[in-house]
DNA sequence: GGTCAATAGTTGTTCTCTCAAGTATTTCTG
DNA sequence: CAGAAATACTTGAGAGAACAACTATTGACC
């Protein structure tokens, strides 16, 4: 890939003498912008890597894995639609259709709440748990490749902490 | 949102006594999985925040900003389609259509290479530069809110370095 | 108890991306 | 120089997700 990491951090040169030299007049090279760009690009890169690995193994897409993993990790192997939408960071409308697909594939099932008839659960079925067990090693292997090869365990943990701090849980409407 | 950070790292309890206690039988709670989840969720959160801010200011979507910023940051205020696709981490097919939209909006222009007639450039137009100048403060402000409020400048820089290392530039086909 | 707002999910539309195939241009080979 | 392979980009079809509008259920207030 093109090496775009030569940044103008030390550029204190005059901005009008060399013609083509950009001196970041807009401020898109601030540390925060840089960090955000790295975040976006790294996410895209890793995500693409995972999707590719799953596709090569003839397994369903990453979103299915995230969903199955989220449900499997919950206490009762079932999750409310709303919680699931938050966990996967997609809209509720999007979730409804994603769940539809998994239901159609026989991996999960819709169950309902006795006490509040508005809520419905996505409940893991045996077939879903089985598929998840097939997907986990593929994802783990790819993650090892991406993480373990380049980051120490301490770094990985540190990264997680920083990212969690960055995400915060701010719900400032505006 | 729901506090899912209570992890089973220290869980050495017997896994069969308490019924509903999950002991991560699949390994989806390894440091690398955790870090990846944080990466995905933080990216989605920040990205959503930026998009929302832009929408509220009645400005074009984030993808347009990324594109304009990438072109503006290049030496000649123009970029080859291929380079642009890599910078934005989307496929070339996707880029063609994204460029189409920006061209239709009068923000950029397609120019061609004299020496190699296969390559075409996306070239910034005055209107695009102007719009970019409107968008930068909105994005910067939102980024400040997300980053500066929660991360020290050193942390932000550290984050960038770690993410860049993680992304690597490995092109291992398979 | 009846009405109104709030909450939980679903549906239809639209947009954008990916994938696979196609065109045009250049480079390599004989 | 002709033909094959490689490169750069475009096109068309399909899937996935966001957005807004909708239904159903619950809880609050009079």
Can you offer a commentary on this structure?
- The structure is a homodimer of 174-residue chains.
- Chain A has one domain (32-155): Arc Repressor Mutant, subunit A.
- The relative contact order of chain A is 0.10.
- Mean pLDDT of chain A is 83; it is low at 1-20 and 170-174.
- In chain A, strands 1-3-2 form a 3-stranded antiparallel sheet.
- The first copy, chain A, is mainly alpha-helical.
- Chain A has 6 helices and 3 strands.
- Chains A and B meet through helix 1, helix 2, helix 3, helix 5 and helix 6 of A and helix 1, helix 2, helix 3, helix 5 and helix 6 of B.
- The first copy, chain A, binds a DNA duplex (30 and 30 nucleotides) through residues 61, 63, 80-82, 90-98, 100-101, 116-120.
Name its key features.
homodimer; about 170 residues; mainly alpha; Arc Repressor Mutant, subunit A; 6 helices; about 55% helix; about 5% strand; DNA-binding
Radius of gyration of chain A: 22 Å
* Distance from first to last alpha carbon of chain A: 39 Å
State the CATH architecture of chain A. Answer: Orthogonal Bundle
Q: How many runs of DSSP E, i.e. beta strands of chain A?
A: 3
CATH superfamily of chain A: Winged helix-like DNA-binding domain superfamily/Winged helix DNA-binding domain
Instruction: Report the biggest beta sheet of chain A as strand number plus sense, adding barrel if it closes.
Output: 3 strands, antiparallel
Report the portion of residues of chain A in β strands.
5-15%
As a percent range, the share of helical residues of chain A equals 55-70%
The two chains with the largest interface, and their residue counts, are: A-B, 73 and 73 residues
Give the quaternary arrangement of the chains: homodimer
In CATH's first tier, which class of chain A applies?
Mainly Alpha
Structural class of chain A: mainly alpha
**CATH topology group of chain A:** Arc Repressor Mutant, subunit A
Count helical runs of chain A: 6
Give the overall shape of chain A: globular
Average pLDDT of chain A: 83
Q: What is the chain-wise order of helices and strands of chain A?
A: HHEHHEEHH
Runs of chain A in which pLDDT lies below 50 for 5 or more consecutive residues are 1-20, 170-174
Spatial order of the strands forming the largest sheet of chain A: 1-3-2
Kindly give the count of domains of chain A: 1
